[in-house]
Records
---
Amino acid sequence: MKAIRYYRYGSPDVLEYQDIDMPDVSDNDIPVPAILTFEQAASVPVAAFTALQALRDKGHIQPGHKVLVNGAAGGVGTFAVQIAKALGAEVTGVFSTRNLEMARSIGADHVIDYTREDFARTGQHYDLMVDIAGDRTLRECRRVLAAKGVLVGVGGPDKGHWIGPLRRPVQMVLLSPMVSQTMAPFLARQSRDDLVVLHELLEAGKVIPVSDRAYPLSEAAEAIRYLEEGHARGKTLITA
Ligand SMILES: NC(=O)c1ccc[n+]([C@@H]2O[C@H](COP(=O)([O-])OP(=O)(O)OC[C@H]3O[C@@H](n4cnc5c(N)ncnc54)[C@H](OP(=O)(O)O)[C@@H]3O)[C@@H](O)[C@H]2O)c1
């Protein structure tokens, strides 16, 4: 079987075809939900695992919690908004103007347009903030958290190839014991049990994958260029 390999810190122009072993699905035989296309189904792992685990395992989300999702329009964010809603939270998403309609369509209760309003200055307080954009300081994020609120750090600008991406998680670990709020850096993991949870949410129509673009395999480099601009809407698909 051939796969495309992209070296994250290379250029999309040096994508490689590589022979890989056909994945063994015998331990992982969860069917594609009937209401999804194969392309939609392929967009679920990683982004939806990330959203589910960030909300549930790190964020300890509870029904009625006020949740802020910063960076809500992308692959992880569109799943995070929908999963938080499915888990009974009141969800505010941070979007840009062009995505406000989509924000409502995926069920966000409140939207903040980051091109016009600063979420750190609305005076609102949240039980949980899932920070996917990672574009603000920890101090600014803490300002919108309730006294016992949780900040889950999912993503952010890489700022360098090696130590750069570790800076924020390290800051969070060091700060957490000194403040009343919980600072929780986070790394998603693959989990069959979570795939079952997601399967149920998808099958029930409570979570619907969002995607605005599909590229044929021959244009994979274009797809990665688009992603790296940092403004994808939902998941970007590559089709066979
Ligand atoms: N911790 C983990 O295990 C884990 C797992 C997966 C991904 N990640 C990380 O999570 C981050 C996002 O991943 P993704 O796949 O969701 O990215 P993505 O699909 O490329 O989406 C990025 C989104 O961020 C929005 N955005 C850009 N600037 C923003 C700002 N200033 N404020 C609010 N939203 C902004 C964009 O929306 P607009 O077009 O509206 O600007 C875009 O939709 C990346 O850093 C990735 O590495 C972490």
---
Amino acid sequence: MDFISAQKIILKLLNYFLVFFFLFIVYKKNILNVILSSRFLAYSSLEIFKKIFMLFFVGYVFTPYFNDLLNFSILENFYANSHYVFIVLISLLLIDFFQYALHFIQHNVPVLWRLHRLHHFDKTVDGLTNFLSHPIEGVIGFILLSFFIAIIGIPIEGLFVYTILTAIHGPYGHSDIRFNEKFEKVFNKIFITPQFHRVHHHLDMKRGNSNFGGLFPFWDMLFGTAVFPNKNKIFTNPTLGISTDQKPNYSILSFLINPFKKS
Ligand SMILES: [Zn+2]
């Protein structure tokens, strides 16, 4: 097993550990009730399906050809002459900007929204929501990010730090952690907090079409899409999900065909 594959497995295990940590240690949910629920079974089978789907389309179809496709990068000289810490920080900001822009486009281009809307299906947003995304969306996101990283010339160290932070942020950002309101007010201007991201899962898409950021709120603040959770009482118990008449259908088949359904 090469170093990159070992890193990926360790980060995925960290991601899974944190999902369980927030559910069972922080929120003290009953392990048996969760594990035997149809929601958990559907999400874990979707996760396994996604891994196989990604392994095939990314590992065998995309990556072998992509490696020979691009041999230039915009920031090559800049990175060669800059300090290591600076390189990692700039890389984090650039990848985060890419994720912000992609997420914004996913909400505003109808065909991409059909692929993304599954992630907004959850009325109970918690660590398990981290697993709820369509495999085709995952492959498209991976391919676009690979082009972005290659064209900009983001070094492997920058990508590695970003991947660690997102492995942590997925379960943490979808948890219902509520910081003290004064702390929340300051902290959510630096890093995205669970309550800031919860606004994005609001049933009312006027509110849901906001807070697209992944790690940092800067892009939302800069482009006017930030809605801070202490405004308009969103901070307490927002109504989450995608539609009021949405009936939870926790089956992998319904998840997979979701983009092809009318609404
Ligand atoms: Zn979204």
